[in-house]
Predict the 3D structure of the following.
Amino acid sequence: MVEVTRVYHFSAAHRLANPALPVERNVALYGDCHRPHGHNYYLEVTVAGRPDPVTGMAVDLARLDDAVNGSVVAEVDHRALEEVPALRGVITTGESLARAVWRILVPALPAESLRRVAVVETAKNRFEYEGGEG
Ligand code: NI
């Protein structure tokens, strides 16, 4: 099997808060990130496939693009992440975004093909999820 990683980009606003907690606790937990702000996110999606002997290709990149652009990028680009229906109830940390994107992409991709989702929030923060618990 060969893994292929494709990089996507979107810009979005967000604000870290757990609505179940009082304001003071959210401020203490999230600091500056409790205030509305934005990121230029990169989303790295890794899929695996066996190279086709005729085409030499392991992954249909057009299909991957359709899935990621249609079900994720179009939903979140230039929006406030807390207002995205598919992210309802998600505290929009990089960790939780990576898991949410995985959950959204699995049914949109060929069975068992998704290997990794990485949300690159800033030059210093990268969040990876490979499915399963944790
Ligand atoms: Ni942030």
Observations:
- The pocket of nickel (II) ion is lined by residues 14, 33, 37, 39 (CB under 6 Å).
- The chain has a mean pLDDT of 96.
- The beta strands are 2-14, 37-49, 79-80, 114-120, 126-129.
